[in-house]
Structures are given as C-alpha cells and as structure tokens.
Design goal:
mainly alpha, two-stranded antiparallel ribbon
C-alpha cells in the first residue's frame, strides 16, 4: 500500500487546488472517492472468490479422502447396519450398569460372585 504522511497529502491537495481550481475540486474529490470505492469493492470480490476457491479445494480433498476410506473398508456400512439393531434393542448392557443396581425385571446383579439384594447386602 502507498505510505503517505500528512505532509504528503497536504502537498497533493495544494497541487490539485492550483491545477484543478477551487470550483472543480469537490467534483474531482467525489470522482476520486468513487474510484477508490470501486477498487475496494473489486478487491473484496477478488478476495471472496479466492476464499471460495480455497474452500472448494479443501472440500474436494475431504471428499477424495472419504472415498478412499470407503474403498479401503467397503464392508464398514454393512457392519454398522448389522450392529445397529442389536444396540437399539438393549441400550444399556450388563457390563455398563453400575454394581449393585437392580435391573428392570427386579432381579439383583452379582458383584464379584455374590448377590447384592438390597441395601444391607
């Protein structure tokens, strides 16, 4: 970017005042401001399109990686489908229950080979 100090800006404005004149200086400043706004808009649009292209390339790489994983383990979906009904029928298995907790049918679980039937067991 152009590095202008206040003294440089003041010199440019004085030269513009002498060359253009005080009558047309506001119109020149509006035109200059419009050009700067258009240039910033174009730069923002370029940056957004560049970011979109980068994001799209990352998504393409992820898709390719997923496809390679599917080709490495083609039966993973079948395995997942076969395990899903078993997990849905009994969401809490006996190994996941905490020791000494009553089961749904009212029977007590064993703890280290002994039966826990209540609070005084």
């Amino acid at each position: 970017m152009v590095d202008l100090s206040w003294s440089h800006i003041l010199i440019v404005l004085m030269v513009a005042l002498v060359v253009v004149g005080p009558k047309d200086l506001p119109r020149l400043m509006r035109m200059t401001g419009g050009w700067i706004a258009k240039a910033r808009g174009m730069a923002d649009q370029f940056r957004k399109s560049f970011d979109d292209m980068a994001r799209q390339s990352e998504l393409d790489e992820l898709r390719a990686e997923l496809e390679s994983l599917r080709h490495e383990r083609p039966l993973a979906e079948v395995d997942r489908a076969l395990r899903a009904p078993a997990l849905a029928s009994d969401p809490i298995t006996a190994s996941e229950r905490s020791p000494g907790v009553q089961t749904n049918d009212g029977s007590a679980e064993t703890i280290n080979g002994t039966v826990a039937n209540g609070p005084d067991a």
